[in-house]
Amino acid sequence: MESDLQTERITRLERSNRRLRVWLVILTLALVVGEFLMPFSLVQNPFGKQRIGWSTFPDVAVQAFWNAKAERRLELGTVGKGEPVVYLLDQSERLRLGMDLQPEPTLTLRDQGGEARIRMTLEPDGSPRLSLMAPPGKGGIFMGMQADGNPILKIIDKDGNLLIQVPSVEEPAPTGDKG
Q1: Could you report the per-residue pLDDT of 128-168, keeping only the tens digit for each?
Q2: Is the pTM of this model over 0.85?
Q3: Which candidate among 33, 47, 57, 146 keeps its CA 20 to 30 Å from the CA of 138?
């Protein structure tokens, strides 16, 4: 009785081992073919619906991941002159969160329509910026720190009117006769 149980366990382990070997061979072949012979390749898990795809074109190398519902949900890679990017997509495969280094380190959250609503950026001088944006043309809040440590704050209403700016805009020097 116990020997039958051990035999059954060994049989299941061997079956799992064969599946794993098949998956590794498929993945290895897809990597080789995808990277060297084709600009795009796709591998699907033979035991589920998850997929991984690779694209390599001039100036672009991107890897994409699909979930079990065949929805592309994640893309990562390099673009342009080798800058890294990471994109998270919603169920409709629309970009919702993006991280990139173009032109500076940036994290952007987008609404269902694809409009940037929250953006965090690190400026070339190292100063951070945060933008909270209403729908296009409807105002926003923009804040950050200057390189010298002074804060920046700008609030714009839904009509595009400047409500608050810190530091305040300096008035232009007077012009005209010196009398």
Answers
A1: 999 999 988 789 999 999 988 899 999 999 998 999 999 86
A2: no
A3: 146
* Chain segment 80-101, per-residue pLDDT in tens: 888 899 999 999 999 999 999 8
Residue 28 in any domain: the answer is yes
What residues make up the domain containing 40?
Answer: 1-83
* Strands annotated E in the chain: 40-44, 51-57, 60-66, 72-79, 83-89, 95-100, 106-110, 116-122, 128-133, 140-145, 151-156, 162-166
Cβ–Cβ < 8 Å for 67, 58: no
pLDDT in tens, 47-85: 777 888 877 777 788 888 888 888 889 999 988 888 899
Q: CA 51 to CA 74: how far, in whole Å?
A: 11
Pairing assessment for the beta strands 151-156 and 83-89 based on DSSP bridges: unpaired
What's the structural domain count of the chain? 2
